[in-house]
Amino acid sequence: MALTRQKSLHVTGILLLGLALGSGVGFLGGLYAAQQAAQFVLRDFATHLVHQADDADSQFMTVVHTFDHIGPDFCSDAELTAMRTLMYRSSAVKDIGRILDGKLACSAVGGRQKDLPAMKPPAMVSTLGTSVYTPIHLLIAPGETGTIVGMRSVDIVLSPTLFEGLRREGMDFMVLMVNTRTRQMVRIAGDNIPVQPEWVFGQQHLRTGNALLFVRCSVRNSVCIVTRESDSLIREHSQALVTSLTLLGALLGSGVALAVIFAVTLRRSLPQQLRRAIRKGQLTLVYQPIVDLATSRCVGFETLVRWRDRDGLPVAPTIFVAIAEERGFIHELTHWVIRQAFSEMGAILRQRSELEISINVSPSDLTGSVLLERLDMCAVLEEVRPEQIALEITERSTADLASASRAIHELHARGYRVHIDDFGTGFSSLSYLHELTVDAIKIDRSFTRTAGTDSITATILPQILFIANSLNLQVIVEGVETEAQVEFLRARGHAMRVQGWRLGRPLPAHLAIRYLDQQDEEFFGAPRPRLVQ
After folding, report:
1. What's the mean per-residue pLDDT of the chain?
2. Cα 124-128-129 angle, rounded to 5 deg
3. Is the peptide bond before 142 cis (omega within 30 degrees of 0)?
4. pLDDT for 297-344, tens place per residue?
5. Are residues 52 and 221 in contact, defined by beta-carbon separation less than 8 angstroms?
6. 122, CA 20 to 30 Å: which among 80, 222, 331, 339?
């Protein structure tokens, strides 16, 4: 009995030791997995910011290559007009200036200048020769300071919101212009994060103070990005993970625990979550009304996709669509949206032949025949006329004019309509639109916000409307959120369609159909009778 009792104690001791070791390994593994996941998120955040910086640099170099010369047209009316046109097409540029003898001679916003003092020396000159002036009191916004970057006889005022749209909750970021030869660096955007030069130039990820910090530099220009997340936020996000892995380690041992750590780490990544959500149909669609300005009747809906991550938090479409494009599964997302939109709205489209829905597609969707095959299949199954479907492509899709023209021709041949989305923020121009034979342009909300104000872009909107009308292009104005904007657009006297919260917020399919019924009651006194399906 004593021997049996001793063996029992040994087994119990070994079991307790195994549980203790397994719990310890699981706990430590959980902390490691949380750190790896946090590093991945910081790296992913920094990568998106680097892409934004590369795009801004491309816009800056376009300005430099266009205007860096001294000739008879220097600061002429024609050059000022060209500067304003290029500024309007550039999301990163708030003003373009010309420099002569160290003084600002003219700018796109301020026009020709006289008796201005010489510009102060730059805070730094980057490795590639870009001069950085910050903080600078701005001519275009008295009382405000900002960042100016210049090269030779050209400088630009950077948009203060250039990177703000990419912010992620609970994370800090800083954008630096650097000179690798002199080891200088100057903050041009974001938060003021204390860093050492060796961290930045070594592109390190490290722990500093009570936070995790990651550095990534562009390979195309002299910009480095610093991202940071606090330990408290990492612990908050990883509490469930650490607890789970501790229990798994206690039950299954160190080997199984390490395997689970790897799997859980993978599951934390947004790309893995998104792909799984697409394949399981865990996204949702909402439909924003598009209204004819003259009649105030709803003539269509824009299809918008929404997604919440595994924690139930909403992820911005600009983020998860970019992830799908970068990781190469944007086609899966587009095909899911097409199937779901036809399924949810097919019946109302059959009933209302005048109704149109628009679906956003990416540039890569336009290559090959898969998109057309998917559209045709869904149209046949749901008995929807192709003329009721509009494909919205971004201006980025028109960068390759020949390919875009072929794709649009094929869509038109099948009966589908093509809209250019967010017009005025990308690559195309009105002359391109004539060659591409698109059906409509959607004017970006950034122009709508300035309607009726003293902003320089407020004068551009009527010009776009006039020229689009002369090209026989349908116009859809996005971001209409106030009655003042509605009245401003009505006063233009152009036929157009409008979209925005003032006319209707994005709605689930059943509420979108109810929205149409409510309009029928307002106009005709009763909803339209349902057809037998």
Report:
1. 82
2. 50
3. no
4. 999 999 999 999 888 889 999 889 999 998 889 999 999 999 999 999
5. no
6. 80
Judge whether 397 lies within some domain: yes
529 occurs within a structural domain: no
Are 33 and 261 a contacting pair, CB within 8 Å?
Answer: yes
DSSP states along 293-336:
TTT--EEEEEEEEEEE-TTS-EE-HHHHHHHHHHHT-HHHHHHH
Model confidence at 525: pLDDT above 70: no
Q: Which two tokens stand for residue 298?
A: 């709803």
Rounded Cα distance between 21 and 63, Å, is 63
pLDDT confidence of 498, banded at 50, 70, 90?
A: very high
Q: Residue 450 carries which DSSP code?
A: T
Same domain, 393 and 448: yes
Q: Pairing relation of β-strands 440-443 and 211-217?
A: unpaired
Same domain, 285 and 412: yes
408 neighbors 438 (Cβ within 8 angstroms): yes
Please name the amino acid found at residue 392.
Answer: E
Say yes or no: 345 and 468 in one domain. yes
Please state the pTM of the whole predicted model: 0.51
Q: Residue 41: is its pLDDT beyond 70?
A: yes
In a domain, 3, yes or no: no
Same domain for 334 and 391, yes or no, is: yes
In a shared domain, residues 126 and 248: yes
Interacting residues of 477 by C-beta distance below 8 A, sequence separation 6+: 442, 443, 448, 489, 496, 497, 498, 499, 500
pLDDT over 90 percentage in the chain: 30
Look at the block and give the residue holding tokens 């199984």. Answer: 256
Domain encompassing residue 443: 272-524
Q: Which of 220, 243, 268 is the last residue of a domain?
A: 268
Name the band, by pLDDT with cuts 50, 70 and 90, for residue 43: confident
User: Would you say the C-alpha torsion 263, 267, 269, 275 has a positive or negative sign?
Assistant: positive
Beta bridge partners of 390: 358, 417
Q: Report the alpha-carbon distance of residue 238 to residue 241 in Å, rounded.
A: 5
- The number of domains in the chain is 3
Average pLDDT for 349-370: 91
Q: What is the CATH number of the domain that holds 151?
A: 3.30.450
Same domain, 340 and 463: yes
Check residue 388 and give its pLDDT.
Answer: 96
Q: Please provide the distance, in angstroms rounded to a whole number, between the alpha carbons at the two ends of the chain.
A: 80
Higher pLDDT, residue 267 or 417: 417
- What H or E segment, with its residue span, contains residue 3? helix 2-67
The CATH code of the domain that includes 518 is: 3.20.20.450
Alpha-carbon gap, residue 119 to 133, rounded angstroms: 9
In 3D, which of 484, 208, 262, 533 has the Cα closest to residue 382?
533
Residues 186 and 292 in one domain: no
Same-domain check for residues 213 and 128:
no
Q: Is residue 332 part of a domain?
A: yes
Phi, psi for 347 (deg, rounded to 5) = -65, -45
